Amino acid sequence: MIFQRDDLKRFPIAGISCMCAGFVTNPIDVIKTRLQLQGELIRELKAEHIQYDGFVRGAMRISQEEGIKGLLKGAVPSVIREGIYGTLRIGAYEPLKEAFGAHDPAHTPLWKKILAGAVAGAFANAVATPTDLVKVRMQAPGTPRYRNTWVALRSIASNEGVRGLWRGVGPTVKRAAIVTATQVPSYDHAKHMILNAGWMREGIGLHAVASMFAGFATAFTTSPVDVIKTRIMNQRSEPGHPRLYRNSWDCLVRTVSAEGLRGLYKGFVPNWMRIGPHTIISFLMFEQLRLVIGLKPM
User: Fold this and answer.
1) pTM higher than 0.90, yes or no?
2) Which of 35, 46, 90, 206 could make an SS bond with 200 (beta carbons 3.0 to 4.6 A apart)?
3) CB–CB of 128/85 below 8 Å?
4) Burial 258-289 (b: 16+ CB within 10 A, else e)
């Protein structure tokens, strides 16, 4: 049996940690989404194409035009998504790692951690894709397409079919596999490398350092997939709105052809600024809640 009683305790505290992190970083996620959709498939961005000129000015413009509510768009589906996605991917990581033969946390080969992270992340986001889809669409610029999360889910299912709720599942599962295969193992590995070297002791300071490293590594590896995921999820699939992209590969090729490789790193700064704090909050809370319920540190 893969999951033992202690393993099952990890799931709820993983979800709580990620839901808190998701809510706190939602404003950054809104800015990141707007920047990723800006100038879509335009080879040379001109002044008339630039609505959000960088992270700071983008934040100011959204605040001025839409108020604080604008920065909280998509917060509900974001928190629901984290409740599903975060619970499953972080909760399942350690049991899967042990299933792959990793029984000594201090001396586990990195490849086993990466494999466990990839499997946990891919499965978790395959389940959570509908909430991710709604989050992206509610955070996109322009007139709001849905009044709230529940209306969005019903509308998409009605107009695009139940399969429409899993639009973009390909790139979003790929992204989730890369995110979890980078974020959780890099935190885990960095933490135990520091402990084994004797540079720091177990505690909040160590958790903060390891999570900061994990946040940067995750932003760097996932930004291109995140851009593709955002664009595919945002496109309409209704009469009168022809689809821009057939699939993930088509989106990748057309983005690079029209915008160059830099197009794949649109929104990198807010992506990093979101993933960094998200990673820190998630792991700090996760480690502290483990102590509360009597689990050993990760």
Assistant:
1) no
2) 206
3) yes
4) ebeeebbbbbbbbbbbbbbbbbbbbbbbbbeb
